[in-house]
Fold:
Amino acid sequence: MIDPAMDRTDVALLRLLSKDARLSNKELAAAVNLAPSSCHERLKRLRNAGVLKGAHAEVDFAALGFDLEALLYVALAKHTRDLVDDFLRDVVTIPEVRSAFLVTGRHDMVVHVAVRDMTHLKDLALDSFTNRPGVTQIETSIIYEATYRHDLVIAEA
Structure:
């Protein structure tokens, strides 16, 4: 459901930016039939409201020598808010970590990492995860291939 404070033009701007965050304000304004100044104000409002959180470059990790990606399934000893919050806050400071999720089910956390090779993955698991306070177990799944969706998917009212 779309926030009632947002209209079709706001959604159109978000869709355009989710496909290509490099579009200029002038290009965005033309695409949604707005004056550039009005478009700029809408984008500013969306940023201030926390709807538009940022723009990021999509990087090919293999081109940088990180030929292996994996998911680490992490079990925690306790599920206290402090332990969970500390884990999520700290784990994203590890350079190899791409994302971290608090999940339901058998595991407590799922962490996506990009590493050079199996030795790097083993060292990362042993040095940055198994010795972390509260971590009782990790399981690892190697990612053979991945596809990503960046376009905006929302249900309109």
Summary: The chain has five helices and four strands. Residues 46 and 52 are 5 Å apart (CA to CA). Residues 61-143 form a domain with the Alpha-Beta Plaits fold (CATH 3.30.70.920).
